[in-house]
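step: validate -> pass
step: tokenize input -> pass
step: predict -> running
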Amino acid sequence: MSSDGGDWDFLAARKREMAERQASEPPAAETSEPQEPAAPRARGVLRADMPLVSLKRRAIPMAIALAAVSLAGFLTEMVAASQMLSLGGPTALLVMYPLGGLGLLAAAILQFRFVDAAARLRVLRIITLAYAVVFAAALGLLAASFVPVIAIGLVWLLADQLNFLVPLLVWSLAGDEFNVAEGRKVFGWLVTWTYVGQVVGLAVAAGSPFALDALDIPLTSLLILDPIVCVLLAILLPRAMRGSGAAKGLATDESLRIALTSAWEFITGVPVWRTFLIASILTFAAGMTGFIAFMVSSSELLALDASSIQVFFGTVSLAAFLIAWLVQSTVAERMLERLGIPGSLLVLPVATILAGLLLALGSALGSLAVLAIAITLWRLPRWSIDENARRAALALVPDERRTRVSFFVDLVPVALGLLVSTPLAIVGVITGQLWIVGIVVAVIAAIAVPFGVKVMRGWEDSLLNWRLRRRKQNRSFDFG
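step: predict -> pass
step: emit ->
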């Protein structure tokens, strides 16, 4: 090794050069006018200070995707549900709901294995194209009148997955694109775009039977929208977000066991999230059972007529989402600030208790109006206050686990709720005493409330867990 420091002579030469340059130049105050401060960075550590309009511009592709998926998914659910009740009767729901739960779990496991193994947009493209192909096959069976009840059942199952799984992937993109502070500014706006799609889809579902019946066009012709939306989403969203950081995945090839374990370790490693998962499962088990009570009671009162059922379901759902949209636009964000994430998550279980009691009353009285109010009482917090709180909670999860954790806390409760709804509702449906189902809904939701209270009490301490990122920032954001 040389001892003369020759390898570092360039540092000494650079230092002498800078000293000579400074000595030869007059003081800056005499030779130049004060310079304007540099323009702020568009992104980086100060991204949370960006104007809301800039955040919305980055979120536009995801907003349009959520609106399109919501439009197609909600329209399809209304059409498929009315057709299924007309073709198979109320007891068809006792078969369809468990199948829907199994379908969601099966699709989720397949996506769970690969969702973080490649760029997210590539995964989304593959999944939406696959849905388009299966949708087209189901519509072909329906057009050929090949066991229509099975074909419409397949469409309904696909609509469930379109409503739950594809938005989860889009939301995972949003979680990668925006940090916690940005997310609090823009996530509510993204939720509002889902309302745009939902409202349009439900408005078409409620109004189309009048026009299509007059033109002698089958209501099932509306289902052609699903494969079209899936193909457009597969082509346009990856192109719009091609240069985005959210387009990247972990690109690691992991086994299904490792993928499941990584998410489950987070759930069990942050105890309050395990309690949150239990509360969610109980709440959604009650909610899905409540939907059986609502759909069976109302369809029987409407004499199982497909057009009447679709108009009623579409109108009630449209009214519910318009109210939810109003809540989202006016008070939802302030409620999240006031109640915090855990307090906002407690709203849905409490509302579900009241909805169950009203479902029991509406079924006993044979009142469509009371049934409509009951199901609206469930949907209102589900698609406003609870949705915002879940998105904000998931923003605390590290990027590499967020999508997988969201499957556990968003999709698993819905899937398990669909699975257990039939045994919870079967006695009331078979005996025709549907008021019993409403009471069951209220009891299950009441069991969820203590778990929600436990989440609220332990939430602040959980933010100190090392598994949560940016815990100091999140602590200041979530509690005022």
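step: describe -> The CA atoms of residues 212 and 219 lie 7 Å apart.
step: cleanup -> pass
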